[in-house]
Amino acid sequence: MNQSFLIPLASNGHTQRALLGLVQPLAAFGTAHLRALSTSRCGLNEQQKAEGSQASTSGGEQHEQQQRQDSTSSSDHAQNFYNTFKAGYEHVKSKAAGAAGGGSGQEPAAKRLLQTLAQDLREVLLPAQDITSATRVYTGPVASATYDGPTALVLARQQATGWQKAWDTVQEKLSGIPVVSKLLNLKVTDTAAYKKGQELVEDLKDKYETSDHPVVHKVEDLKARMFTGSEASRAMREIRVRDPAFDMNRFVQSVKLDAPTVVRAFLKHDLEALSQHCGPELLERFAGIFKHFNEQGVFEDPSILFIGDVEIVEVRLMDDDPFIIAQFHCQQLKCTRDKFGNVIDGSANQIQRVYYFWGLQQERSPVVTAEGKVLPPRWVIKDMMWQSMLALV
Length: 393
Description:
- This protein is α+β, with helices and mostly antiparallel strands.
- The chain folds into 2 domains: 3-125, no CATH class; 236-391, Nuclear Transport Factor 2, Chain: A.
- 56% of the residues lie in helices and 18% in strands.
- The strands form 2 sheets. Strands 1, 2, 3, 4, 5 and 8 form a 6-stranded antiparallel sheet that branches. A two-stranded antiparallel ribbon has the order 6-7.
- It starts with a helix and ends with a strand.
- The relative contact order is 0.08.
- Residues 232-373 form the Tim44-like domain.
- It is found in: Mitochondrion inner membrane.
- It comes from Volvox carteri f. nagariensis.
- Pfam families: Tim44.
- Residues 45-78 are annotated as: Disordered.
């Protein structure tokens, strides 16, 4: 949660009283519940002692009666606990509604606090269910882009306004005067003064561009930072032009969704599965690596035990296309076998941490399905690097 929002909120007197009003019923509820538990426990102990002395003299019938009394006591205790909890919950709920919705001024701050808390809990306890793959190519039917209507361009004369008609009439009357007609037909670009000034501007521009003065370089750097921004900001601007609904948090979750599929296909040497996520240059590189392993009859264990969180390393432009470098790590088995299944490197119980770096490039246009749903531009895995850093076991 944003700390800059909580500090001024907690320092406000009205909000503090609202929060105290929410906490006090919970504390009272907890104290009452503990007291009820201790009382019921003491009562049950005394009852067990008394019934134990009776059971020693009365035999099997007293034992059955004791079991029935214990079950009745447990059900009554559970019912009392439920009633107490329900009463405390209703009390806290009413207090929260009064603090969040009543009055004006500082009450909306408490309402925003409760909404933020609820949203944070919902995101942690209930992960989003609509996260889709960011790198997988869409292979379903797409909408038809054919157009059967007219395509030829037609010139249409624009209707003149009243002001344009009046100006045309004045021009016609003044065109009969030779001096005015000459002024009206005169072009500034044809004058000697304009040509001389244009040559002077071109000379100054050439001298400025070819100058090695440090002041000129500082001015150019400052102008580039002010008007073009950093490379990351220009890349993000291009990303949002292609996908206005782009969200970096959802993108990170989508990459984490694709990570086990791509890594497992890489360990299994499955080029067909990798072709759904990777670009042609990376697939060609994988084909050479897999061919070398297959010729030697060596295979890696594709077991993946854990995948860490995805981190964004860099956002940049490459060939005018947005390019994002993402990093994550996997805990996987360090075990290499031959074609007979014998372990030739590592062991079946040795765990290693492997760091993967993906270079993802955004495509230029979205995809429209046959149902009319617009899918955002795909992020193609253009490059992948991996390195084993730490053996855990």
